[in-house]
Amino acid sequence: METTITPESRYARSLIEASLDPLFTISPEGKITDMNNASVNITGIPREKLIGTDFFDYFTEPDKAREGYKQVFAKGFVADYPLTIRDHKLTDVLFNGSVYKDVQGNVLGIVVVARDITQQKIYEKELTEAKVVAELATGIAEEAKSKAESATKVAEDATRIAEDAVKAKQQFLSNMSHEIRTPMNAIIGFTKVVLKTELSEKQKEYLNAIKLSGDALIVLINDILDLAKVDAGKMTFEQAPFKMASSISAMLHLFETKIQERNLELVKEYDSKIPEVLIGDPVRLHQIILNLVSNAVKFTTTGKIIVAVNLVSEDSEKVVIEFAVTDTGIGIPENKIKKIFENFQQASSGTSRLYGGTGLGLAIVKQLVESQGGTIHVKSEIGEGSTFSFTLSFQKAKGEEELVPELLELDKKIKNIKILVVEDIALNQLLMKTLLDDFGFERDIAANGKIAIEKLKTKTYDVILMDLQMPEMNGFEATEYIRNTMHSKIPIIALTADVTTADLAKCKAVGMNDYIAKPVDERVLYSKIVGLIKKPIAITENKEKEIEQIKKLRCIDMAYLIRCTKSNPILMMEMISVYLEQTPPLITAMKMGLKDKDWSALYAAVHKIIPSFSIMGISSDFENIAKKVQEYASTQEQADAIPDLVLQLESICAQACIELKEEFNAIKNAK
Asked: How far is the C-alpha of 647 from the C-alpha of 653, rounded, in Å?
């Protein structure tokens, strides 16, 4: 007799096959009576061979499967019963089943769905591992909230662990930088000093070898630190006005001796259409070009090196400039061109043996160019040479801009400058004495911040050179005391062997005017001292000017208040009154929290202030400042920066109160 396939049965079959999880119908005796294609796929057994077999035999624990099966008949259903299918990969499933009946209500068997939870198990395993690592790293154990949040939780833990790892790496590099730069400061510094004395040719040769080796080591340290900054997303770029033509000429001047020694020709091609003054980061630009020219010199034995700077496009706001460094050197194989921009990579293993280098230079160049929105390209032929070109955009300078100071030549006419050197290491003290004596400057030495403060109480100085890491009182603590307790505006230059972003930001936050990286370059030292003497503007003064500027500018915007009250004067006056009533006590609470280092109270006060900024039309910049205070208060990180931020919030809120009182009276009088 031929079986008729009804629409109802076709519909039922389509529902069964729609399930991506294995689905079985089972008789009261435990025999498989039907299944979907997913069941066939996961067991790897054809449908006709599955029908009539024991359902329990397809699980790693048949007795446990039978127990679950019995529960279905006992309760009418079972949910999320864990089993493992005996397939080629032992698939973990959650067994869900219920009885099915005929039209008279007689139980015909059960329907079960085995939901694959392999991915869920992976998530659970990853979560467990991430929690263990997080507990070891931070001592904070967190329980998973629910299975639905597992994947999100794993991602959060992984991110935090990664951030901790980056912080640890940055701290390690910071410490290593300090430890290596401190002795290198003395080695390179004293080598330069001795080179100025009467020496035989042989002595000069040996000392120049020491200096070149020291310079090479410092370049390597800088490369590693820069790479770490880029990896951590901490690389920052200045936006300062500078004269590009003279800046590049001065930089290329550094290569003249090396190029002459190798009998090469250096050609500079500079587009006269480029504006004289541009705004950008001249230090990073120098770093890019220095790396490219250094490579060109290294890999070129005959011929010339061309440095070309051309204007690509220009509008009213900015210019796009292409820089190209072309050499007649060994060239790069075509299949190696992409590889050379990777970390620690060179065109071949033999390149490092023949020419030296770590393979970091081009990796950093690429990162520096692309981090500023630029692009870099290379064309090369073996035996013919290479051209590295990159494009960067620069803002045009508007009006009178304060240019990045150029290095000054020693002027013996500049006298009567008194310098206080705060440095704990005897070799560095001796080096600074020697350099300052050469400049013709008077100097005193203090071995730590505490001694420096005592000297400042009895003697007047023009500039302080402040080391950062010292016993008893370090450079940060000393500067904070000089600025906040002594209220002195004396220019302070940090002497730092750690040029990572974190320390430089901290230098600025405590009130230092500038910094010099160790090993100290005597021309940089001289230029920065003389530059500050000629223009002695301390950071504290700048902040006071900023606050005065805030007072001069109108800080509130009534547009939002007018819109949300529909110009109702009574509502507007009521909202202004609430602000005027609540804000002064909150400011007081904020200042008290800061004074007492009660971070919870500080956080709570700032939290209550934030909503009023948008209501009263105060710039979102101050809302961001407030959120920074909250962040620093909750983590106690960068606590040194909090006082300045609180001062800005206090000033803007006080100004807002003055302006809102005027608005209140104006609305009241207009009624």
From this structure: 10
**How many angstroms separate the Cα of 301 from the Cα of each of 1, 134, 308, 649?**
95, 54, 20, 61
Q: How far apart are CA 257 and CA 83, in angstroms?
A: 77
Between the CA atoms of 193, 196, 202 and 205, what dihedral angle is there, to the nearest 10 degrees?
70
Token pair 């040996």 is found at 206
The 10s digit of each residue's pLDDT in 363-383 is 878 888 888 889 999 998 888
> The whole model's pTM is what?
0.42
How far, in Å, CA of 86 to CA of 38, rounded?
15
The pair of three-digit structure tokens given for residue 483, joined into one six-digit string: 């600025």
Q: Cα 570 to chain center, whole Å?
A: 48
Output the DSSP codes for 280-307.
Answer: E-HHHHHHHHHHHHHHHHHT-SSSEEEE
The partner residues of 496 in beta bridges, in order of sequence, read 517
Largest CA-CA distance found in the chain, in angstroms, rounded: 120
Contact 200, 163 (CB under 8 A): no
Higher pLDDT, 377 or 537: 377
Give how far Cα 423 sits from Cα of 298, 337, 426, 429, Å.
Answer: 38, 47, 8, 6
> How many CB atoms within 10 Å of residue 535?
10
- For 367, the token pair is 């990162």
Phi, psi of 446 (to 5 degrees): -125, 135
CA 359 to chain centre: 23
Helix axes 475-484, 449-458, angle to 10 degrees: 30
